[in-house]
Amino acid sequence: MQHPKNFGTHEIHIDELIERNKDVDPFLIRKWEKIFTYSFDRNASHEIEWSDFYVCLRKIREIYGAESKQMGYARKTLEALWEGLQRLADSDGDELVTIEEWIGVLKKVDQKKREVPKWFSDYKQFMFKLFNVSEDGHLDINEYGIIYSNP
Ligand SMILES: [Ca+2]
Ligand SMILES: [Ca+2]
Question: Which pTM was predicted?
Answer without folding.
Answer: 0.77
